[in-house]
């Protein structure tokens, strides 16, 4: 087992800091969401690959919500960690904070969760080292990651259900027994 404080013990964590420069801006003058998504993916890739010691690919990323704009000139830090391992997959969480260099204020702008899968030289999924949390924070993150994993499976099942063809005589998932045909959703009677 890795000794706490050694490089191996920290192999599940990664931090990357980037200055937001004017070439990263959108039409509103703030940082383009796509730029942040690219860095998020790079950080998740690096964290997962270094942890697994083998190439990893992005299987999915959960809902990303940009609650507040990130401004040009701010220093953005991406703190990533492996929160949970399956057999070949890993959940990597990324916490994004921004620092205003002039006013020295720090904001937590968003967090998101990637599912990465480790691949062997033949391009097939391979087993990853099982993650054993050591601190209370790591255990909390692993517990939350388990719950998110269940939620993803639930969303998968529900999404497959949504994709099923809708029978002709149903409106919004309810069977029409009135004989009046489909309900009108527009056109207010005079
Ligand atoms: C990731 C990839 C290799 C998985 O292939 P696969 O045939 O589904 O492999 P497996 O069935 O062995 O599953 C691998 C892992 O992914 C998980 N997984 C696969 N599909 C999943 C899904 N829909 N939801 C959640 N987990 C899923 C499996 O549970 C397994 O994890 P585990 O071993 O920890 O239990 C394949 O989907 C792929 O190559 N995707 C493209 C990745 C890529 O190129 N990303 C960059 C963006 S284009």
Detailed description of the structure:
- With 190 residues, the protein is an alpha+beta fold.
- The protein has a single domain, classed as Hotdog Thioesterase (Thiol Ester Dehydrase, Chain A).
- The chain has helices at residues 33-52, 136-162, and strands at 13-19, 56-61, 75-85, 89-100, 105-118, 170-171, 174-175.
- A hairpin with a 2-residue loop joins strand 6 and strand 7 (174-175).
- The longest helix is centred in the C-terminal third of the chain and has 27 residues, at 136-162.
- The relative contact order is 0.14.
- Coenzyme A is lined by residues 57-59, 86-89, 115, 117, 125, 152, 156.
Write a concise keyword list for the protein shown above.
single chain; 190 residues; alpha+beta; Thiol Ester Dehydrase, Chain A; 7 strands; binds coenzyme A
- Percent of residues in beta strands? 25-35%
Distance between the termini: 76 Å
CATH architecture: Roll
Structurally, how many domains make up the residues?
1
CATH top level is: Alpha Beta
- Topology-level CATH name: Thiol Ester Dehydrase, Chain A
Report the structural category. alpha+beta
- Radius of gyration from CA coordinates: 22 Å
Largest sheet: 5 strands, antiparallel
Low-confidence stretches: 179-190
């Amino acid at each position: 087992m890795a000794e706490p404080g050694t490089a191996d013990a920290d192999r599940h964590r990664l931090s990357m800091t980037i200055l937001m420069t004017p070439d990263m801006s959108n039409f509103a003058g703030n940082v383009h969401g796509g730029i942040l998504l690219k860095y998020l993916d790079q950080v998740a890739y690096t964290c997962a690959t270094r942890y697994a010691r083998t190439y990893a690919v992005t299987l999915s990323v959960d809902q990303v919500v940009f609650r507040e704009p990130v401004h040009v000139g701010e220093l953005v830090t991406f703190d990533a960690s492996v929160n949970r391992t399956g057999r070949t997959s890993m959940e990597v969480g990324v916490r994004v904070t921004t620092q205003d260099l002039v006013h020295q204020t720090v904001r937590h702008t968003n967090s998101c969760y990637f599912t990465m899968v480790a691949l062997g030289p033949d391009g097939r999924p391979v087993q990853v080292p099982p993650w054993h949390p050591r601190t209370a924070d790591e255990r909390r993150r692993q517990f939350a990651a388990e719950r998110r994993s269940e939620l993803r499976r639930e969303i998968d099942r529900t999404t497959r259900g949504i994709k099923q063809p809708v029978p002709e005589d149903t409106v919004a998932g309810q069977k029409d027994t009135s004989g009046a045909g489909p309900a009108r959703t527009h056109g207010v009677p005079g």
